[in-house]
Amino acid sequence: DIIPQPLLDQYLSMTDPARAQTVDTEIAKHCAYSLPGVALTLGRQNWHCLKDTYETLASDVQWKVRRTLAFSIHELAVILGDQLTAADLVPIFNGFLKDLDEVRIGVLKHLYDFLKLLHVDKRREYLYQLQEFVVTDNSRNWRFRYELAEQLILILELYNPNDVYDYLRHIALTLCSDKVSEVRWISFKLVVAILQKFYANNANALGLNFINELVVRFRHCSKWVGRQAFAFICQVGMFSLFRCVHLFWSQFG
Description:
Blueprint: H1 5-12, H2 17-22, H3 27-42, H4 48-58, H5 63-97, H6 101-109, H7 111-115, H8 120-124, H9 142-155, H10 161-176, H11 181-200, H12 204-219, H13 224-236, H14 238-252
Helix pairs in contact: 3-5, 4-5, 5-6, 6-9, 9-11, 10-11, 11-12, 11-13, 12-13
GO molecular function: protein phosphatase regulator activity
InterPro entries: ARM-like, ARM-type_fold, PP2A_Regulatory_Subunit_A
Keywords: Repeat
């Protein structure tokens, strides 16, 4: 009653390999691009009509097809709701996390948008996997690490201070020592956001431990770039500057 059956059948047939040879070599990519719109039109109650097609596209040999789905999986999650997302999209999302960088970037750019739609317990499972984004197929792909830092700033709100300290803090410190200055600069903002997270949630002990770690790692770094990083962190986070000064006076007189 929503879409004429022949039209829907025609759309679903776009994943047929024979169509790629006779109609358009990128027909599967076009199908993937349009799928969120078709899903929105059909509604979540008719997701069963598209599920098999989506899974077929998600395993397509062309990375451009998988990349297209990776960039829109968060939109599809909004359309389907939390139950269908957990059952049908999370396994595909997990597959994209282990894919080529060209596919992973689609997931990474909307990581916060996807994770916030998951149940708290399911969301917490990804804390162990966020570290994997630091490693890329090509180390010169610094924009990948830049995007990770930007997403982590948003993702902080999804986790409690203890989880941030145990998992995300390590990633932030690693990114602060990146070889590319653009990555380091956005990482300084991430560090300040983590400090704000601790003090906003009255996790003062975690905040102080983190500041002490920053002092040891950067303030006393033998390389000037490390000491410069500490100065930049203080510059970015004016709210924490006075805390740092107080810490300096207490430790160094």
